[in-house]
Amino acid sequence: MAENPFQGWLEEAANYASVLACGVYLSPQSIVVKSFSESFPEAQIKELLQRLAEIALGLRVYQIGSSRLRWVFDNGQFHIARRPDGAIAVLAMNQDSKAASTIEDLFANFMTTEGPAPEKPILEK
Amino acid sequence: MSAIASPPARAISSRRVLLVDDDAQFRDVLKDYLIKRRDPSWIVHTAGEYTEVLECLKSHTVDLVVLDIQMPVMDGLQLLKLIKRSRPALPVVVLSGVVTPESRDYALQNGASLILSKMEVAAGFDLIYPALEATADAPLEGFKGMLRQVGLIELLQLECLGRKSSILEIKGANADGRIYISEGNIIHAEFDRIFGEKALAQLLRLTGGEFHLAPFSQPTRQTIEGQWEGLLMEAAQSSDEQTGEEAAQQSEADQANTALKPKADRRVEEIVVISAANDILYQWKAKEAERRVRLINLILVKSAEMSKMFPGLGRGDRFEINESSSRAICLLHSESKVFVRLSLSPPSK
């Protein structure tokens, strides 16, 4: 199986101490995650990404965009970016995290990472 | 006064409530509803007038008082003051057939945790039950002010929505601050040696201390302009991004630089405030308020799911949607949920 094009982005996120977990959703079958904290197990981050994809779709019903989301909880927060091709990235951060520039840098790279080649359309014979 | 027997095996998690209403029929209906509840179970005391209230409070431990306003001899608002004088930490929910802005303000300023209309009760106790349970369970931590259940942001919202003029004086652990509200607009804030929106952000970031409302007087200067809804949202957001220490240590030069930097203009486009029971308490320019209510509920449900998925995460506090030209924010943590949509224009050069 070809390596996920966002694997490098996950590796990059791993360099930042303020990132507790991260992941990228391409499709229900293609989700890559990395966790650096016991509080954010990889299985749950995968599940989270599935739900975020649903929410991003759901927001369309409310005529609200979903290119950048931030979900703040008592003890942590999720930063979410969505590309025009539908890929979604999530960063799990501490609540007290003062890493605005880290987030901006990582999401800027996420937005410009070359995504997977579009599948060739199946031509009807 | 009558004390109603609790369930035989008294659970540790029982809530002890005193219902005060001169309408015995209403009292009994609410009492029956509560004592049928389990997990937590409720121990219900009732009283029809103030002497019974004082006697009950003397002889029983009570976690919550539910108080009617319209009562003979001493009305509920007078009784509220009396209860709060001797038991300032005891949560009191005021329940009234007619809630006027004046009676609401008076009750809140005299320590009521929550104001409920009997109209809401008429639609079914299930609508108000979560609010009663939450009020009985609310911890005593946080700000020690007139409004035990209400945070600074909510208090500011109340003052602004009511188009009040007042000074909110805040005593933090290391420094004091003031927020000036003139006819519902936040016009000035000061905290330590910081002024304006930065001070407002720092004040709203405080997690404990004391506050009280003082009569309005003109500040020496006006440092804040703009619609209060946007200011509160921005302050809440920036408070996440900068600690109090950082702001206090920020040099005068830095502050001057920040002041000179062009900032995107924000304009509030839409506001919806809903109660815990999903009633629309306030809306402004919301063409599809019902749709916003559904959106807030979707976010609440999803937040609860995430809190379950990540047990250490705590409750959902805020959800933000940021686009290049607009921002929408749902405040989720308070009794009332707030949806605000702002448009962002690029800074003018």
Topology:
The complex is a heterodimer of chains A (125) and B (349).
Chain A: H1 7-13, E1 19-27, E2 30-35, H2 42-61, E3 68-73, E4 76-82, E5 88-93, H3 100-112
Antiparallel strand pairs in A: 1-2, 1-5, 3-4, 4-5
Chain B: E1 2-3, E2 15-20, H1 24-35, E3 42-47, H2 50-59, E4 64-68, H3 76-86, E5 92-96, H4 101-109, E6 114-117, H5 118-122, H6 125-137, E7 143-144, H7 152-161, E8 166-171, E9 176-182, E10 185-191, E11 194-195, H8 196-205, E12 209-215, H9 228-241, H10 244-249, H11 252-260, E13 265-274, E14 280-284, H12 289-309, E15 316-322, E16 326-331, E17 337-345
Parallel strand pairs in B: 2-3, 2-4, 4-5, 5-6, 7-12
Antiparallel strand pairs in B: 1-3, 8-9, 8-12, 9-10, 10-11, 13-14, 13-17, 15-16, 16-17
Helix pairs in contact in B: 7-9, 8-9
What characteristics describe this protein?
A: alpha+beta, 3 helices, 5 strands, B: 349 residues, alpha/beta, 6-stranded mixed β-sheet
Summary, kept brief:
Helices cover 32% and strands 27% of the residues of chain A.
How does this structure look, described?
With 125 residues, chain A is of the alpha+beta class. Helices cover 32% and strands 27% of the residues of chain A. Chain A is built from three helices and five strands; from the N terminus they run αββαβββα. In chain A, strands 2-1-5-4-3 form a five-stranded antiparallel sheet, sandwiched between helices. In chain A, β1 and β2 (30-35) form a beta hairpin. Chain A is globular. In chain A, 37% of the residues are buried. The model of chain A is unreliable at 120-125 (pLDDT under 50). Chain B is globular and about 60 Å long. Chain B has helices spanning 24-35, 50-59, 76-86, 101-109, 118-122, 125-137, 152-161, 196-205, 228-241, 244-249, 252-260, 289-309; strands at 2-3, 15-20, 42-47, 64-68, 92-96, 114-117, 143-144, 166-171, 176-182, 185-191, 194-195, 209-215, 265-274, 280-284, 316-322, 326-331, 337-345. Chain B is 37% helix and 28% strand. A six-stranded mixed sheet of chain B has the order 1-3-2-4-5-6, sandwiched between helices. In chain B, strands 7-12-8-9-10-11 form a six-stranded mixed sheet. In chain B, strands 14-13-17-16-15 form a five-stranded antiparallel sheet, sandwiched between helices. Chain B is an alpha/beta fold. The longest helix of chain B has 21 residues, at 289-309. Chain A binds chain B through residues 39-40, 44, 47-48, 51, 55, 58-59, 62, 64-78, 95-96, 98, 100, and chain B through 240-243, 246, 291-292, 294-295, 298, 302-303, 305-307, 309-310, 312-324, 326, 328. β3 (68-73) of chain A pairs antiparallel with β15 of chain B.
